Amino acid sequence: MKKMFCIGYKCTLCGKEFPYNGKMLTCPECGEKGILDIQFDYQGIKSALTREKLAANKNFSMFRYAPLLPLRNTDFGRYLRVGYTPLYKANLIHSELGLDSVYIKDDGHNPTGSLKDRASAVAVAHAIENDYTTIACSSTGNAASSCAGNAARMGIKSVIFVPQRAPEGKLAQLLVYGAKVVSVAGDYRATFELSRDAIAKYGWYNRNAGINPVMTEGKKTVALEIAEQLDWNVTDWVAVSVGDGCTVGGIYNGFRDLKEIGLIDRVPKILGVQSLGCCPFVTAATGDGKLVPAEENTLADSIAVGIPRNPVKALRAIRESHGAWIAVSDNDILEGMKLLGRTEGVFSEPAAASVTAGVKQAVQDGIIKKSESVTIISTGSGLKDVKNALKAVTRPVPCEPTIEALEASGIL
Known about the structure:
Blueprint: E1 6-11, E2 17-19, E3 36-40, H1 42-48, H2 51-56, E4 87-89, H3 93-97, E5 101-106, H4 116-129, E6 134-138, H5 142-153, E7 157-163, H6 168-176, E8 180-184, H7 188-202, E9 205-206, H8 214-219, H9 221-229, E10 237-241, H10 246-260, E11 269-275, H11 280-286, H12 311-320, E12 324-328, H13 330-344, H14 350-364, E13 373-378, H15 386-389, H16 403-409
Helix pairs in contact: 4-5, 5-6, 9-10, 10-12, 13-14
């Protein structure tokens, strides 16, 4: 067993602190909306996680950052290899975005094809440490498939609740991984509420990111990797799509943790990107600051969350990093998908492609300056949603198998 550096919980609403026991989900005084932060002993971590130790570490997965994770175990060799995904320095896209320097973090290379594997791997490890045999969650797709895949690898059962609109690619993953799938006749809110009630009734491990504070800690590892892969010189901006709020909250936490232990000297500004068809955070940021329910009217299903469950962490991430919120149309998202694929060979699903569109818009609006460097996080593979990917492109023209027909086709 490794030394645990978790020292407590702090409620994001009332600020009350509690000792760490590895089992609390939400604040007992604020109820379900009292999302917790896990607090760490940064002084202890400073000696356990150094640049020198990381340089010598041959575990090229997210578990190389174990001192910053709420887990007791040290043997992660049996788990899926989550994390340490590629960080590419852009060859072409920076000029089309009007920027001098762009990096692309491609988390579509994770085992089930999305950043959500980071949360699910930690959730499965945490469930096993606490003797659960079944793990459950609600999801628009990626959290569901990542939960099912990581659970299957470790031999525990998964029960997944998805809205009926979930893309077939993600649904296929769930079924292949052997999950028990509940296709809910309703939106994400109805799906979440049914999963919450079922988890309470049957006593399953709760992987829901809007409830379990462990999820944020898994997601923050993408920030830890970005910093290490940039040799601890983080870009001026880091851009990510936002749905429930857990991912952007985790990214901020990761950079903040690194600054606290002295591995980086500043937290990058964070650009939170939403779809115009579902942008409660953008509406709150540009209005009176209050989060109100939004319609879930976007093809970017992974960020189609009308009532985010992690509002405090998400809003804090942008505010405290001195970042910005932005919303883009579905047409812009499809164009962003084509642009990233055509210029850099990275195939992003719609939610991930929204980030490319958001950065482009932010440059045009003067939010991001030409001289500022940006890391774009592509949170999921385009193979997750081929149906919408095909909307972004022109279908191939049939051609007879002769050179003459090829020349006459106009394809070349």
